[in-house]
Amino acid sequence: MKEVVVHEGPRTELIESPVPTAQAGQVVIKVKVSGSNPKDWKTQWVAKLPINMGDDIAGTIHEVGPDVTGFKAGDRVFAFHQIQAPHGSYAEYAVAWAYTTAHLPSNTSFEEAATIPLAALTASLALYRTLALPQPWSPAESPIPLLIYGGSSAVGAFAIKLAAQSNIHPIIAVAGAGSNYVLTLLDPSKGDAVIDYRPGRAALESGIRKALVNAGGWKQVSHALDVIVEKESSAVCASLLGPGGKLAHVLPLDEGFQMPKDTTAALTMSGDVHGGHGEKPGGRDFGYVMMNAFTRGLETGWFRGHPYEVVSGGLRAVPTILDNLKSGKASAVKYIFRVADTEGL
Length: 345
Fold this sequence. Notes:
Radius of gyration: 20 Å
Number of strands: 15
Shape: globular
Distance between the termini: 9 Å
């Protein structure tokens, strides 16, 4: 099969590789569409190069490994590949653990599905594991203000969708060029608002405080999610936290960053669902539950994928995608590609 691996730089290489074999607990998926994520160009985080950096898989089951139930050859699925493990989604065939693989409803395209796994699981982990907010099947019964910095990013937008299904409001989302998209996800009747960060920090903090007051007289929040994790985004989130408040962040905070007194911060990493980052109890089961919740949400309509742009060229699109991600061109969009568009397949 053809596969793209990423070298330091990043530099990509299209190579020939054997079709993988499913081990116990795994499935091999014939990749129809692969998603991409901002971490894919960041080779400095990778212990061993070159490597297939793709982790968002949408396709059909090719092979089911021992001890796997619920899947058979030909099933339409979407899956989260284990980060930095072999056989990622930048290939004709990819491997995923069965517990982070889910059935893809007939009303959802492979293209939409490829936007979901990593970003939606990260959002879920941040809301429900790190911040311990009410889950969709046990929604909040009273208002819970939530601040999300980076609302138009895939993680931020999925966090908004999940929070809304959990009846968490008001949602105060910070965004820039993608603000119009974020507005489509919010419910102003419940106090939700989007605040533009581009006029500067003072105007941003003032706008957030005004939105909280208008939503119900709040002056601070107890829960915040920083998807951008730059010095200013973290500082803004921290400044809005009240005593006992907690900040979830998806990248390490800047060295030396100090949280206000009586507040805490915790790193959320998608790899927790595969037992990474200290093997927090329940991570694998959480991944299984949320992947199947996404299927249910897609079936019933409360959950959708992220806006996407199909980059032409199939596997040969990977260098363009990595360049776009590195330069920060993506705004309210995920870059995906169709494997069948690869010349020579």
